[in-house]
């Protein structure tokens, strides 16, 4: 199985699992899954978040997802329990499709690590 086919299969499986758990029958999109990861990383899953906090949660998720690729490094948790990361290396310029593939690869790896998918 090619790497692209494997990523596509794993991504579809993951979307199905997460959509069944967190959505009313509609498939979650990439942004929704990134948001869920941010909530997971913060660890405050039952809170309601304002718009700016939701953006911060997505930022947390992106930092966490791209940390294994060497782009970010965890620094500390602040007094409210929010994780903070520092940029280690700037992301290279990517086309929208390339960006999407990178994020899907990172998300699939994140959920493999957590044994949600294999």
Biggest beta sheet attributes? 2 strands, antiparallel
Low-confidence stretches: none
Oligomerization: single chain
Could you tell me the strand content as a percent range? 5-15%
* Major β-sheet strand ordering: 1-2
Shape: globular
Count every beta strand, where a strand is a DSSP E run of 2 or more residues. Answer: 2
Number of domains: 1
Features:
118 residues; mainly alpha; two-stranded antiparallel ribbon
Overall description:
By secondary structure, the protein is mainly alpha-helical. It has one domain (3-114). Helices cover 57% and strands 9% of the residues. It has helices at residues 3-22, 30-42, 51-66, 96-113; strands at 72-77, 83-87. Strands 1-2 form a two-stranded antiparallel ribbon. Helix 1 (3-22) packs across helix 4 (96-113) and helix 2 (30-42) crosses helix 3. The longest helix is centred in the N-terminal third of the chain and has 20 residues, at 3-22. The chain is globular. The mean pLDDT is 94.
Secondary structure topology:
Elements: H1 3-22, H2 30-42, H3 51-66, E1 72-77, E2 83-87, H4 96-113
Antiparallel strand pairs: 1-2
Helix pairs in contact: 1-4, 2-3
Concise overview:
By secondary structure, the chain is mainly alpha-helical.
């Amino acid at each position: 199985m090619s790497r692209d086919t494997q990523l596509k299969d794993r991504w579809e499986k993951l979307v199905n699992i997460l959509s069944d758990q967190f959505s009313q029958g509609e498939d979650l999109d990439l942004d929704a899954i990134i948001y869920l990861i941010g909530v997971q990383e913060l660890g405050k899953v039952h809170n309601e978040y304002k718009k700016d906090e939701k953006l911060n949660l997505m930022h947390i998720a992106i930092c966490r997802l791209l940390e294994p690729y060497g782009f970010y490094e965890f620094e500390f948790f602040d007094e409210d329990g929010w994780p903070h990361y520092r940029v280690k290396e700037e992301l290279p310029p990517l086309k929208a499709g390339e960006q999407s593939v990178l994020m899907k690869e990172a998300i699939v790896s994140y959920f493999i690590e957590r044994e949600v998918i294999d």
